[in-house]
Write a structure and sequence with these properties.
Blueprint lengths: L22 E2 L5 E11 L2 E9 L2 H22 L7 H7 L6 E2 L2 H16 L27 H7 L8 E4 L4 E4 L12 H15 L5 E5 L2 E5 L8 E7 L2 E11 L2 E7 L4 E4 L2 E4 L13 E8 L2 H14 L1 H9 L5 E6 L4 E3 L10 E3 L1
Parallel strand pairs: 16-17
Antiparallel strand pairs: 1-2, 2-3, 3-7, 4-6, 5-6, 7-8, 8-11, 9-10, 11-14, 12-13, 14-15, 15-16
Helix pairs in contact: 1-5, 5-6, 6-7
Amino acid sequence: MSKINRFLLSATLFLFVISGYSQGIDDGTQLQVFQRTLKLMGSRFDLTVVAENQTKGDAYLDMAIAEISRIERLISSWDPNSQTSKINQNAGVAPVKVDQELFNLITRAIKISKLTQGAFDISYASMDRIWKFDGSVMKMPSEEAIKQSVAKVGYQNIVLNQENGTVFLKNEGMKIGFGAIGKGYAADRAKALLVKNGVASGIINASGDLNAWGAQPDGKDWMVAIVNPLNKDKVFSWLPVKDQAVVTSGNYEKFVILNGERYTHIIDPRTGYPSKGVRSATIFTANAELADALATSIFVMGVDTGLDFVNQLKGVECILVDDNNKIITSKNIALKGVETQSR
C-alpha cells in the first residue's frame, strides 16, 4: 500500500508532525510549516502548508480557506440560495440548471451509489429522522415507520441531463445532501488549488477527512497516529502519509442500544435501519472525496461485506474496528506491534 496515515478520535483526524520544522533550500531560504485551525462547513478544519516565509504561508492558507468557503456555498443544503437547495426546492417540479462542477460531483456520487449498491446515497437527505442517538429513544420504531422513513430515498430518482446541465429529483419532498462526501471534496479541491499555485507540501484535514501531499521541511513524511477509538490516549500504530487521502467514520460517540443490539448513527439508506457491527472505519485512497464516501459505505455494509468490497478495489485499503474492539485490516495493510486480523 502507498504511504499513508491517520488518527481516529471522535471521527476527527489529528495531525502530529514529529520531525524538524524547517530546512534550507538552494537560495538559503528556510522552509517552514504554517498551520491554521478554524470552523468551516460546520466542522473543524486544520490546514497545514509548507512555505518559505510567514507572508507566503498566510497567503496560501487564506487561499485554501476561500476555496473551502466557495465549495460550501455551492453544496450547502442549509443555504436557501445555494444550487443544492434550489435542486431540493424543485423536487418533483422542474429540473434545475447547475454549474458544471456541481453536476460532475453529483454524477460521481451516483457512480459511487451504484458501486456500493446503494450503501452510499446522497438522497439520504430525504430520510425522515425517526432515530435519535441522544438517549431519548428507548424502543425500536415500528417496521412501517422505518420503511416509510426511506420512502423518498433513492439515487435512481436523481435525473441528470448532460446536454442541458440540469438536475431533477423525480419525487416531491426528495432531497440531496453532501454530508457524507462534501468535506472530502472540499479537502481535495483546496489541495488541488494549492498545488496549482506552487505549494509543494501540505495537509488539508477536514474533521477527519484528510488529504496530504509532499513531505515535511526536513524531507520526512507526515506522520499520523492511529489511536484506540475508546481510549484517545492510546496510540496503537503510526503510519506515514504521502500523496494520499485518509478518512475515518466512527460510531463510538453516537449510538443507541436496543434489545441488546448496538446501533450506530449511520443509517442504511436502503432499509432505514442503523448500521451495526463496525465501530470505526478508516479508508486510505487517492482522494478524500472517494474515501469519505467509502468510509460511510463500509459502516453500512458491515465488517465482512465491507472488507470483501475494499479488497476488490484497486488502490483502496481500510482499517476497521468492530463492535468487539477487534482491529481488522484489508489485505495490504500491516500494523506493526498490533494484534490484527487481515482479510
